[in-house]
Amino acid sequence: MRLSSLGFLLHEAWLNIRRNGLMSLATLGTVTVALTVLGASLWTIFRLSEYAQFQPRRFDRIDLFLLPDVSRERAETLRDQIAHLPGVARVRLIPREQAWADLQASEPLLTEALEENPLPDKLEVEVRDIAQIQAIAHNFRDQTAYPDVERVVDAGEAVRVMLGLARVVKVVGGSASAGLFIATLFLVYNTIRLTVFARRREIRTMQLVGATPGFIRLPLLLEGLFHGVVGALLASGILLLCAREVSRFVASLRSPLIGDVPSLLSPWHVPAVLVALGALIGLVGSYLAIRRFLRPI
Amino acid sequence: MIQLQNVTVNYGNEWIALYQVSLCVNKGEFVFIVGPTGAGKSTLLKLLYREETATQGTVRVAGHDLNHMPSREVPLFRRRLGIVFQDFGLLPNKTVYENVAFALRVTGESSRTIRRKVPHVLEMVGLAHRPDAFPHQLSGGEQQRVAIARALVNDPPLLLADEPTGNLDPDTSLGIVQLLHHINVRGTTVIVATHDHTIVDRMQRRVVALERGRLVRDDQQGAYRPLLMLSEPMRS
Ligand SMILES: Nc1ncnc2c1ncn2[C@@H]1O[C@H](COP(=O)(O)OP(=O)(O)OP(=O)(O)O)[C@@H](O)[C@H]1O
Ligand SMILES: [Mg+2]
Question: Residue A297: inside a domain, yes or no?
């Protein structure tokens, strides 16, 4: 293809977009909405699985609160004994003085009101496999085996919920976004097919005056690409605005469960991923649509 | 230039649009194809630019066997024809100028050549004053002249025109036919399908008559109606 033809075909694509104003707007709107939904779900899933992976770290621990009259040596012996149990990764002894100091630092009003330290010594037991945490915690509750332990606190139900959530998010979210991707592709294909269908007489005329299939196809492909990319940029704008509001809202909740989970995503990733998806969807969608109507005659 | 041998065209399984038509047109000839509505005139022209293919028989145009032409070669073949479609076939989103230029664009012609040739043919068909109008802003006759300009802009060796005067007043029709004649004199083979008596009778060129898909008459210097039929009312 000659250079002058290439320039012409680029210009063609642009003129088509401008002169089919309403149809272009409809296509652009569809692509934008579809990509916004797809992008929002991909992003949500990504963030949720980041949370799900982050949370269990706080729950892979069993706290053993010892009786007030247990001596420091007995506490240390117990610590070493538990450290050798199967399934236990590490044990830390938190002396009551240290726990009190920590509390004073984090909740000064509370400690002032209490005056005296009511806290017992504490053993923090980290388990190797989170799935076994309940079984291990159950052993510590046996009064005859661990007479010095007054109270056993494990994440219990919460751990199971978090683990389940992590799995559900991955499976359901993964297949949902795959489905959504296909739906978006189909939606865009259908919209572009409509534009191409509306121009089938035009396409026939072009063929009859001697235009090659490539000559007819290229502007239409460029049109699809344009709609995909511009739709993706609009969708990114919408998503980033929404994300800002959502994170403000989440921060305003001040929930201890939703701490600052660091994200691998920077704001630049959103338009980058969406533009790539949009370009792919636009090109594939218009290619499929054109193939349907560009029969040699 | 054109050889048709026992050509039959069926639409679907039932309808026979052309039946056993044989026709030979030499380079440089001017031929009218006449006949009542539905006789198969457009079908015959479509065969020549390969929008339709023969169900039976052979079609040869400019040395190509159209029945066995690979679809890859069809666009190149069509670029060497000038075609005026019965429905004009203008691109609705393009201006008059762009419509005419498109026929040159597909051949990869340079913008310079296009800027030189397009105003020239628009001048020839009398539309030089409206290059920026869109087809829907033009009258039927004006659209038809755009279609003619597009067919001429390539200087094609073979010009196929389906009802090129269908929407024109008698004076303009004559102007168009004289234009076609002029082009024919310069060496282009011209085939015109029409039911316009006036121009056929006036031109006194070769007339091929179709009736219900059959070739019923082929006069070297004919009128729209055969002389026999003209004399019939007198006899009775
Ligand atoms: N695509 C088609 N499918 C089925 N039948 C068709 C098709 N095209 C044409 N025909 C039929 O073939 C016959 C010949 O049609 P054609 O268009 O060649 O006639 P025509 O001589 O050009 O008529 P007109 O003077 O009205 O233009 C008609 O009876 C028409 O109904
Ligand atoms: Mg016709």
Answer: no
Chain B contact set for A2 (CB, 8 A)? 108
Same domain flag for A44 and A181: yes
The tally of domains found in chain A comes to 2
Q: B106–A4: do the CB atoms touch at under 8 Å?
A: no
Domain with A146, as residue range(s), is: 59-155
In the block, which residue shows the tokens 């039959």?
Answer: B8
Say whether residue A4 is in contact with chain B using an 8 A CB cutoff: yes
- Quote the tokens at residue A97: 């003085």
Q: Are A145 and A139 in contact (CB under 8 A)?
A: yes
Looking at the DSSP bridge assignments, the partners of residue A123 are: A64, A93
Q: How far is B229 from chain A (nearest CA, A)?
A: 38
Any domain includes A234: yes
E strand or H helix that includes residue A158: helix A157-198
B91/A206 touch (CB, cutoff 8 Å), yes or no: yes
| pTM score of the predicted model | 0.71
- Joined together, the tokens standing for residue B134 give 């869109």
Shortest CB distance from B107 goes to which of A201, A204, A210? A210
pLDDT in tens, B207-228: 999 999 999 989 887 777 765 5
**Are residues A30 and A72 part of one domain?**
no
Q: Which residue has the tokens 């770290």?
A: A57
Residues of A in contact with B105 (CB under 8 A): 5, 8
Q: Is residue B189 within 6 Å of ligand 1 at its C-beta? A: no
Query: Could you say which of B75, B110, B111 has the minimum Cβ distance to residue A210?
Result: B75
Same domain, A93 and A47: no
| Tokens read off for A31 | 């692509």
Is A6 an interface residue toward B (CB < 8 Å)?
A: no
| Same domain for A173 and A35 | yes
Residue A255 lies in a domain: yes
Q: Do residues A79 and A185 share a domain?
A: no
Residue A149 sits in a domain whose CATH number is 3.30.70.3040
Report residue B229 as tokens.
């039929």
| Span A99-146, pLDDT tens digits | 888 878 777 777 777 777 888 888 888 888 877 887 888 888 888 888
